[in-house]
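Why do we care about 3D structure at all? Because function follows from shape, and shape follows, mostly, from sequence. That is the central idea of this module. The next example makes it concrete: a single protein chain, its amino acid sequence, and then its structure expressed as tokens.
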Amino acid sequence: MAAWQTADEQNLTIMTPDSPEAVRDVVAAAIADEAPLAVEGTGSKRGLGRPMYASRAVSLAAMSGVTLYEPEELVLSAKAGTPIADIERLLDGNGQRLEFEPMDYGPLHGLAPGQGTLGGVVACNLSGPRRIKHGAARDHVLGVQAVSGRAEIFKSGGRVVKNVTGYDLAKGLAGSYGTLAILTEITVKVMPKTETETTLLLRGLLDDAAAGAMAAAMGSSAEVSGAAHLPHLVATRVLGGALGSDAATALRLEGFGPSVEARAAYLGQALTRVAPLERLEAGQSRAFWRDVRDAVPFADGTDKPVWRLSVTPTRGHEIVMALRMQAAIDAFYDWQGGLIWLRMEVGEPEADLVRTAVAHFGGGHATLVRASDAARAAIPVFQPQAGPLAALTGRLKDQFDPKGVLNPGRLG
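And the structure:
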């Protein structure tokens, strides 16, 4: 049997296997003992999903390191416990990046930034502002190695961009939050960094006008790779307050220097009639989008409930306005208004209110991404699934984890 270390933390036995075989043994023992098993990397996303009540946890922190990197082939493989920060430094040194711009949930949950792992990012299907142009994390996964809830090691996909064998299974594990299998190694495609970037800022727009401006920009030939709106006062909470309090509607342009400048001039000329225009260049632009990506305006050290709403972009501002009429909330927008970060100011999640508003204005998904343990235990954290989809989810769980030992109840 492969070795692992154990520790006892608040009566939770944490096992840190160092190989796929050791992970398999941990799962096999959990099955034999009928003991629920909490799955994590470094624990930076413990606040996501319903609270886990388990006597054992498996941490992938000891399974770290890049196992394959071929810059010319745009492919990287790494063990699941590899910190995303390490991967991004390696890629940056070779003029490349993760195109899906993975979010770091640590600051929103009161933790230091940079603790997330590749396995956690893929298991939660985390993506940032660039998703509107380049897709989610699952769209960049080429292959995985994992251990199922049956204590079986399996592989899916490959290590080259053109290999599509088993591709759907590799993608399907993305967003499963460790409830189907424990990822042990992941292969992703990477992309060259852009030469430069700039962000155009329209100042002082109300939410409805900002939605129109973002839609016009995204529909233009300017190739916008980020579109966000920070209402009045929310803008003070990014870039260390450098933007001031006026609302800021941000449009990011990336690429070769002359191309970016030409597109910025074209888009700027069209938008100067809409609102006063400012620009963020290079490093300041990148810092701004990191703050938007990581929901820094709501990384306030509290457990005030924070919702992540995925909605129709043109209806996002209507949802926020309807909620403002009924509750004390704060909000800002990403993905051209299709992603709403919503903070409840009084302290109650108001799940029925939020989900009713989302359903009324075109539908979508409302996920409670921060709240107290008591609140997360009392209400559905994830958007309730319709009957057929819930049945399919149940069948997948039965196939991959028939004994229900992996993160039981986390998605409930």
